[in-house]
């Protein structure tokens, strides 16, 4: 998978999520023998948020233990966690606050509220995870692949229930909506900047593994988060 695949990371999942918005014409054209577009119940939403947020935090824990970063807001949080004595999960939430405030003003209320709930979920599990699990050692290559994959699965859980994880993806969505600037290309540029800054603090082999982790996240979203593949909403 080429390095540009890393653009579909934690933040660009918000862009991909919009592909699953219900559309009557699409539903009619893709009719199946199953009940089309059944809405999720509140219990299903809560369950998905718990699974998604916990998987994302577990992925951050593994990447942090291996000394790696990734793209998007998670990459910024991980990089800062190597410089200040604060967990990447907590940093993720703190950095996300201004982006969430922007979402309340610039995006739809439903999307903004669900994204805020997801961010609070990440904060909750970031505080809980050290109390219930300790990662004493992890192979960096395994961490890159495993953590990238479960982060992608966590994002997928949230996206299937019309929530994002905030971050710079909110800005890229807004730029695409109001200025016509492609969100994916903007996110690629942001990810490149994050990786470039990371080279000042991390050795080259860890940068390569970090790119592999971002690609693993992208792979989950590219393969499993496609229009028409999922009829629930």
Q: In words, what does this structure look like?
A:
Mean pLDDT is 80; it is low at 1-8 and 18-35. The chain has 233 residues and is mostly helical. The protein has helices at residues 13-17, 24-29, 42-66, 72-81, 88-106, 109-132, 140-159, 168-179, 183-198, 204-224. The chain starts with 12 loop residues before the first helix and ends in a 9-residue tail after the last helix. The protein contains ten helices and no strands.
Strand content: under 5%
Return the average pLDDT rounded to an integer: 80
**Helix/sheet category:** mainly alpha
Helix content: 55-70%
Radius of gyration: 17 Å
DSSP summary, beta strand count: 0
Low-confidence runs of at least 5 consecutive residues:
1-8, 18-35
Distance between the amino and carboxyl termini? 29 Å
Oligomer category: single chain
Main β sheet profile: none
Approximate shape:
globular
Number of helices: 10
What letter string, H or E per element, gives the SSE order?
HHHHHHHHHH
